Amino acid sequence: MSFLKNKLIILIIFLLTGCSSIPSNTANSCLIFDERYLWYKHSKKVEKKWGTPIYLQLAIIKMESDFDWLAKPRRQKIFKIIPFKRPSSSFGYSQAVKGTWEQYKKETGNKLASRVRFKDSVDFIGWYTNKSEAILKISKKDAFKQYVAYHEGWGNYKYYKKNKKVIGLAKKVEKQSNIYKKQLLRCKSSLNENKYIIF
User: Fold this and answer.
1) How far is the first Cα of the chain from the last one, in angstroms, to the nearest whole number?
2) Which of 36, 89, 121, 190 counts the most CB atoms within 10 A of its CB?
């Protein structure tokens, strides 16, 4: 019985790893969706549901985890040698922290949402950017300010102008967002064609 249980666990891990490996070129939205067509379906659904552009969803994930489903902040080190605790509970594609992720699950009713699932991660980004628009009056097309709110939180957003590091990161997200947007204009029509996926 335990042998079968171990086999099942290995199979589940294999399937999860196969479905969640990092795309070969995370700087190109068309190539990302060529490799992960279901990701396009999920991102498109989020755009329709929350109004968050696909290119912004991808740009945030690119900055936060570079599409690594198991991404975590690096551990702090004592005396620059001894590994210590991580600076935050950020995890997964979206690098959502535990508290905000729990708030998302409660408000959306998505109780089984997982931070390692792309579908849930982009929905979280849609939910978050939608709240940023409502709370801070930031347009979902303003990648710079949306990322600042995403990184700093709604409460700390007003202090971002004093934070050069955050400004630098937000500029990178804005630039990547524009790149993804231009790329999607070239391949969106082909992505919108019906595709049959064989598992």
Assistant:
1) 28
2) 121
The residues spanned by each domain of the chain are 26-67+115-191
Q: pTM, whole model, 2 decimals?
A: 0.84
Strand pairing partners for 91? 96
Give the pLDDT confidence of 112-160 residue by residue, as tens digits. 999 999 999 999 999 999 999 999 999 999 999 999 999 999 999 999 9
Residue from 114, 116, 138 nearest 128 by CA = 138
Which tokens sit at 148? 């600042």
Separation between Cα atoms, residue 66 and residue 49, nearest integer Å: 24
Cβ count near 133 (within 10 Å)? 20
User: How do residues 45-67 score in pLDDT, each as one tens digit?
Assistant: 999 999 999 999 999 999 999 99
Cα Rg, the chain, nearest whole Å:
18
Q: Which long-range contacts (CB under 8 A, 24 or more apart) does 67-70 make?
A: 67/22, 67/23, 67/26, 67/32, 67/93, 68/22, 68/93, 69/20, 69/22, 69/93, 69/116, 69/117, 69/118, 70/116
Q: How far apart are CA 31 and CA 17, in angstroms?
A: 19
Please check whether residue 130 is in contact with residue 140, taking contact to mean a CB–CB distance below 8 angstroms.
yes
DSSP state at residue 88: S
